Amino acid sequence: MTQLDFDKGAVPLYVQIKMIIRDKILKREYAPGDSLPSEAQLQEMFHVSRITARQAIAQLESEGLVERARGKGTRVVYPKKIEERLVGIKSFTNEMLERGIEPSTRYAHIEMVAADAHLAKIFGCEKKDSLYRLDRVRCADGTPIVYFVSYFSQDRNLPLDDERYYSSMYALLDELKINKPIKTREVFKAITADRKISEKLEMKPGDPVLLRERVSYDRKERVLEYTLSYYLGERYSYTVELDGESSPLSSL
């Protein structure tokens, strides 16, 4: 058990307790649905007052990490959904930072693969031509939230160094002097997690997943990337805004 800092001028005790429990939730030591220790148990564990323990739980509840129910104690829940508004092309990193969420990358791997018929059609190449495949697991405040599988044509000359892909992909494209996308075509589907997706996102097979299929184009109308994004269904949602003149469908 992590020791609290009782020194004068230290971070308030309830904040320290909140941070300890929050870290355990993000690391899945306390998984969604698990019950947290009671206020009395926290009081004994950390040698603090009942009020301090109650304040720590209240902080976790305000962050959407736990919920309290009379007679049932406090249990861990998924944080509130992250809502992305589809009004432009943004990187995952910028999307999270704009919401005050800390983005990070838990896993990244790039390799060369042979194009199958589907990929050959998208990139306008021959079957078995070489393409880059980049797999990444991106996190929001330390929690895995999306598993990206991206493909790039061989002439993009991307570095085969996994460490280069732990930050923003768009920032790396700038560094490599590769133009960022100016147009995308996207399809959304509701699916369930298979074994590989569930392992990457630390979820159960069969849990809901939002699949986002994107083809991005550069200024020369060439395909820049083809990406399959698997989002935790309980953590992510999209909002599309259409005005009266541009909307192709209407219920009126």
Overview of this structure, please?
The protein is an alpha+beta fold and 252 residues long. Helices cover 25% and strands 32% of the residues. It has seven helices and ten strands. The strands form three sheets. The chain has a six-stranded antiparallel sheet with strand order 4-5-6-9-8-7. β1 (66-69) and β2 form a beta hairpin. 24% of the residues are buried. Residues 244-252 have low confidence and may be disordered.
| Coarse structural class | alpha+beta
Give a quick account of the main beta sheet: strands, pairing sense, barrel closure: 6 strands, antiparallel
Number of strands: 10
Kindly estimate the percentage of residues that lie in beta strands according to DSSP: 25-35%
Poorly predicted runs of 5 or more residues: 244-252
- The helix/strand order is HHHEEEHEHEEHEHEEE
Structural descriptors:
7 helices; 32% strand; two-stranded antiparallel sheet; 252 residues; disordered C terminus; alpha+beta; six-stranded antiparallel sheet
Task: Summarize the helices and strands and which ones pair or pack.
Layout: H1 13-26, H2 39-46, H3 50-62, E1 66-69, E2 73-76, E3 82-85, H4 92-98, E4 103-114, H5 117-123, E5 130-140, E6 143-153, H6 169-175, E7 183-192, H7 195-201, E8 208-217, E9 223-232, E10 236-239
Parallel strand pairs: 3-10
Antiparallel strand pairs: 1-2, 4-5, 5-6, 6-9, 7-8, 8-9
Helix pairs in contact: 1-3, 2-3
Briefly summarize what is shown.
By secondary structure, the protein is of the alpha+beta class. It has helices at 13-26, 39-46, 50-62, 92-98, 117-123, 169-175, 195-201; strands at residues 66-69, 73-76, 82-85, 103-114, 130-140, 143-153, 183-192, 208-217, 223-232, 236-239.
